Every structure is written in structure tokens, then in C-alpha cells.
Amino acid sequence: DAGVTQSPTHLIKTRGQQVTLRCSPISGHKSVSWYQQVLGQGPQFIFQYYEKEERGRGNFPDRFSARQFPNYSSELNVNALLLGDSALYLCASSLPRGSGNEKLFFGSGTQLSVL
Amino acid sequence: TQLLEQSPQFLSIQEGENLTVYCNSSSVFSSLQWYRQEPGEGPVLLVTVVTGGEVKKLKRLTFQFGDARKDSSLHITAAQPGDTGLYLCAGAPDSWGKLQFGAGTQVVVTP
Fold it and tell me: Least CA distance to A49: which residue of chain B?
């Protein structure tokens, strides 16, 4: 079975631009989470979506938004890019809480560079 | 916000040596997870510890959860170059989808 897939793998943008990152969860997983990992730090939680609804949001500005589609894939959008948005953006999928198997599976991430 | 602090930040050892990585918090966690992340990849779950005082072994890796559930450690015996990576501890306030990670410990094992 395919793991969590993210696209693109690398992206270069300039300040002020907008970017859309994509994630396809493992088949059967309905929960998708997004994380930002700045070089030298651990991942920081951005969003969690389950059944197309936002179930949690981390401490990120409104420039960050996301959505989940009927097939459970997800997009992360970032507007008005800043240099500080340069990071590895990770997507993770899991079975829902209470399923008894809530192991989180991460994709390889999208490396975003803002110039 | 419950913060997780990891130490040391960086560890470089020779193959065959032992090492210990620590994860500490001022708050109680219901459970903690340990991940390993290699360059260009996402974190991969190694173990989840749930009960205070719990010890789990995964081949040459030993994970311990403190009695008060505020700290955890990862011990690697006879480290191998394949153990090289960023080791992250993480806790979840209410859902495993909303993990809080420590900053990580970069481990380098040289032949």
C-alpha cells in the first residue's frame, strides 16, 4: 500500500506569493494533520482535519488555511509568504481517535523556500 | 502549552558505543511517543509509552517513561551507523493528530 504522498517535493517562491501544498493520506485514513518543521527544530502543529472538518488549529496566522476533500486528500494554503515561512511542511494521516490504532504516518514533506 | 525539552541537542559517537537521549517536561503527559527522522523524510514512529515507569524495548533501543509521566529517555546499546538520525519525542494534549514535538536530538554514529 502507498504511504502518505505529498506534492510537490520542493518549491521555491518569493515573498508575497501564495502557495498550495497537497497531501494524499493512506487509503482508509480519514484524519489528516499538517506540521511545519523549521530547520533545526521539531515539527509544529498547524491543522488537523477529520471528515472534511477542521478539528484543531495550531498557533499560526490566518495566512495559513487548509481544507480536506471528500476523498480525504488535503491542501494547505499559505498566502502572502514571508521569509520565515521557509520550512519543511509535513502531512500526516491516521485512523481516528478511538479506533484503537491512532498511529501517525508522515509523508516525506514539501520543502518550501521563500526568497 | 506543554513544552517538551530534549537533551542533548547533538550527539556524535563511535559505532559500538551506548547513548541516552532525554525528553523532559514541567507538565504531565498521558503518553509520549518517540520518532526518528532521517534527512529528506518525515518522522517515523518508534514507540508509544503510556504508563508511568513503563519500559519498552525495541531491539537495541530501550525507552523509559518517568514515574510522574513528565520525562522519558531513549537508550541505544551498541549504536550502529544506521541509528544516525534526528530523534524526536512528542506528546498529545488530546489527539494524536495534534502532536507537540520537542526540538529533537541529532545523533551521528560513525563507523
Answer: B97
Among the partner residues A41, A42, A106, nearest to B42 by beta-carbon distance: A106
Helix (H, G, I), strand (E, B) or coil at A26: coil
Determine whether the interchain pair A108/B42 forms a contact, defined as Cβ–Cβ distance below 8 Å: yes
Q: Buried b / exposed e across B71-93, counting CB within 10 Å, b at 16+?
A: bbbbbbeebeeebbbbbbbbbbe
Q: Which three cell numbers stand for residue B64?
A: 523509559
Bridge partners of B10, per DSSP, are B106
Rounded mean pLDDT for each run of 10 residues along chain B, 111 residues in total: 87 97 90 92 93 94 93 96 96 76 96 95
User: Please, what sign has the CA dihedral across residues B93, B97, B98, B104?
Assistant: positive
Contact (CB, 8 A) for A104 and B97 = yes
